[in-house]
Every structure is written in structure tokens, then in C-alpha cells.
Amino acid sequence: MTYLDKIIDTHFTEDYFRLTLPSELNSSSATSPAWYGYLAALNVLGTPMLFSTAPLAHHFAVGTSGGKNSIDKHHIFPKHYLETIGFINDRDRNQIANFTYLDYATNIDISDNPPAEYVQRYKNKLGEEGYRLACEQNALPIDFEKMDYMEFLTQRRILMAQTVRKAYKELCR
Asked: Domain limits of the chain?
């Protein structure tokens, strides 16, 4: 085993993925290494954007614009909706676990609507199995739209860490 392999094995333990990484995802920093690790995992796994069939990696590829006609970083529980239910602190509203990438049209469609409203439209469009798959692929708890916001964040951090773990194992093959 090489020195680098030993360092990797020492750092990326079961406890790292179960405890440390979810804790690192408890942040509102737009430049968090944990957030970038999650995005990298989505790319490794070929995960489509939420409510889409287009892999996120296609929008981060060299030569794509990544501009307004492509994708947007979106609050899963929209920021203005959170204000209406009492979350006025940006640290609470801009949690890493509250973000996903959406194609521009989906972002506009969702706008500031509460999850309980917009998710039903996409459940109808995707079907129950398609909805479950979209949630699984995007580290969202099933029926997240019915959850208390703070519980949603806790559960999503755990699922995001599991996504990173899955991609890590894929890379270790």
C-alpha cells in the first residue's frame, strides 16, 4: 500500500461518511469543500439534475456556457417561501443541503413556490417511481416536501454524504 493510499484510507472511514461529512455539510458557505465534493460525486455517478434526464456533468463540461440558458443553483425550499414561514436568517435559508441545480426552465417553473406545491406537479409528470428515483439520485428524502425544514436539512445532509460515499467507492474500483 502506498503512502497516499494509507492517507486516503485513514481519512475516508465509515465515521467520516456517517458523522464528519454530514457535519461539514452543515454550512451556508457557497465555496465549501463539502459542497464541491457532493457536486463531484453527482458528476462521477452521472446523476441527472432534479426533475430532469440531463446529467449535471453535461452542464459542467468544458465548452458549455453554464449561463442562464443552461442551469441555475436553486433553493429546494425557496428562500422567499422560507421567509414566509419564519426563516429570516440567510445562514438558515442558504444551507448547502437546501441547494440543487435545476435546468433554467424548471427553476423558473418552481420559482418561489413551496415544495408541497411544486413537487406535486413533478410527481404527476414523472410518476411515483420517477419521483422516487429523482429523490434517490439527488439525495432527497422521499416526501421531503412534507417535512419540517430543519428536519429536511438534517436528513438531506446524511443522504448527500451517502452519495459522496457511493461515488468514492465507485472511484476506488
From this structure: 3-171
